[in-house]
Design a protein that fits this description.
The protein is of the alpha/beta class and 149 residues long. The chain is 28% helix and 17% strand. The protein contains five helices and seven strands. The strands form two sheets. A four-stranded parallel β-sheet has the order 2-1-3-6. Strands 5-4-7 form a three-stranded mixed β-sheet, with no helix packed on it. Strand 4 and strand 5 (116-117) form a beta hairpin. The radius of gyration is 15 Å and the shape is globular.
Length: 149
Amino acid sequence: MMAETDKKKRISKETLQDLRSVLEMNGIKTVVLNTGKEVKDFINKNIPDECIVGLGDSITTCRLKIRNILAGKGSKIFYSWDGSENYNRSLDTFDMPPRPDYYLSRVNVITGAGEIMMKDYSKEAARAGLFPRQIFAFAGLNRYSEKFE
């Protein structure tokens, strides 16, 4: 989870801690990363060299050039968006969808009850049961809502 310090949206430290507690109780490990450097260090530390990585529609991963970091580690990368108006091959367009070891994406909405909505993982890959070993989901404070609307 990436905390934001700008004026877009602020939630209290208590609310953030409560949310982390709820997620942890639901078996979702959470890490608060406050800077781009912390995100890059986290990726370098937690994604091994030469693995298969899927990248979803995340402005965070595009702005921080996470794809370049992963390529430098020798990873095979599948993505559908490069942060511009250029859309690339999505996981749905492969004859046999790849099964990534890791998948990095954004959270569309996260609620105070710890409910998470993520809409950009490939439906075809999900139907085929090709879920990644681990998912790293980025959620800025602008993605927080008390409940789904």
